[in-house]
Amino acid sequence: MKRMNHMLFTAGMLTASLPGLAQQQQPKNIVFIAIDDLNDWVGFLGGHPDTRTPNMDRLARMGVVFENAYCAAPVSNASRAALLSGFRTSTTGVYGNAEFMRESEVINNGITLPRYFSNHGYYASARGKIFHQPMGPWADPQSWDSQENLGGKNLNVAPKEPGRQANGMPILTSGGGGSVILDWAGVDVDEKQTNDYLNAEWAAVELMKKHDRPFFLACGIFRPHLPWYVPQKYFDRFSVDTLALPPRDSDETMGKLSDRALQMTGYRKPDHEFNLLKKAGREKEAVRAYLACISYADDCVGRIVDALEKSPNRENTIVVLWGDHGWHLGEKMRYRKFSLWERSCRMPLIIVAPGVGKPGTRCTKPVNLIDLYPTLVSLAGLPTNKQNEGHDISPLVRNPEARWDIPSITTLAQNEHSIRDERFRYIVYKDGSEELYDHVNDPNEWNNLADDPRYAAEKKRLKEFIPAVNVKSIGSSKTKKNKQAYIPASDEIEQEVEDYNRYLGFVR
């Protein structure tokens, strides 16, 4: 018995002397942070010189930054459906915000990411926007063991006068309703009373708890999604006079794009959002409002990072921070998302994996949000879900310089794709028109090389990665239960924003 006790003691001492060993034997927790409409205007990506994101930058120093991470679709619903289902949009038929993902047979017969973890012994919980809505059927409650509702004080902002928005800009109408597409305002409210902060606080509290089983904890932060209403102090951090405007095309370069591309930008429409901003001379104000919302979102992330650094679960928790797609503020003469260009497709991605990735490293290989499903499964040591169409990028977490020859694919609609490798972006539209950009020499995508014979080989190579399956859209959801949540029309983006923010209580 003495000998047995000695052996057990020795084994215990050996395990204690090898902290990595004990850590590897424990299931890995997951913290999943989603930020809505966040482009690369974060400090660790250098997308805008005036941005302030000290907390996201702090998290970046704790893990691996993927400098060339791209969405599966440049629109929230489709992007999130792809990430969380593991299927490309061209496979599911979920291309925009109108399609209810559970009406896709492919998705409905699959297993979503949080449910996959739950099926393997994890407790999957969420608060805020992870799927396309924070609550209701579009939040996919069957994917979670628990969902927490939004709480706290809404940021209601009333217009100063009839027919005007809170910022004084004219109201854009769709179907007779008001719009918040061009609206922003500083609000007299404590950030600790706002929904996003309360959601982050919930995640922070969960991180500090002791759990009886591994957890998959998802926290969705709504800002910088429109309307750009945040506490006034975040506007006060930026001066309109000193802000830099993003670079933009000339009329000459825009004139060389196809009719389909120009249709997408709204470049030819005098009443298009960006043209209205230019005419009003308020472009810098819009930049300020977007930066203010990013700063607010960063403070929310900071609450989670603070808790992580003190958490008893820190050394055994994988953290992922991601944006669902990018955002234009004048680049390519465009305002908002819904494009296949760099500004709409690129967004932040950080993976913190203790004992796997080296803190403070960066990876330039092109990756996609759809890759997160198989990657987290791999990092957690779970069996592979062979249905996944994404790629396991955990080798890049371990070694950011590892060989990687797989480009990233972003899909806007049926037969409309963007293929991005480390150097080039190739775009094909449904009318057959093409674009090719060399990001080494043309990071702003001003010079379309698609018709240049010198780049024919590059174009041919990238064409090979166009998805073989390109199904039709499953169509706008018509079911009564989904209309009670959020059903915009495919081409009525103004109504989309209005309805969604009314649903959350952000608009009058």
Strand content: 5-15%
Task: Count helical runs.
Answer: 19
Give the full name of the CATH homologous superfamily: Alkaline Phosphatase, subunit A
The rounded distance between the terminal residues' Cα atoms is 75 Å
Structural class of the secondary elements? alpha/beta
What count of domains describes the coordinates? 1
What is the CATH topology assignment? Alkaline Phosphatase, subunit A
Residue-averaged pLDDT: 87
C-alpha Rg, in Å? 23 Å
Indicate the overall shape. Answer: globular
CATH architecture: 3-Layer(aba) Sandwich
Question: What does the secondary structure layout of this molecule look like, with pairings?
Answer:
Layout: H1 2-17, H2 19-24, E1 29-35, H3 54-62, E2 64-66, E3 69-70, H4 76-85, H5 89-92, H6 105-108, H7 113-119, E4 123-127, E5 146-148, E6 184-187, H8 195-208, E7 215-221, E8 228-231, H9 232-235, H10 251-254, H11 259-265, H12 273-280, H13 283-310, E9 317-323, E10 328-329, E11 335-336, H14 342-345, E12 349-352, E13 361-363, E14 367-368, H15 372-379, H16 394-398, E15 408-413, E16 416-420, E17 424-428, E18 434-438, H17 456-463, H18 480-483, H19 493-504
Parallel strand pairs: 1-7, 1-9, 2-13, 3-14, 4-5, 4-7, 6-8
Antiparallel strand pairs: 2-12, 9-12, 10-11, 15-16, 16-17, 17-18
Helix pairs in contact: 3-13, 8-13
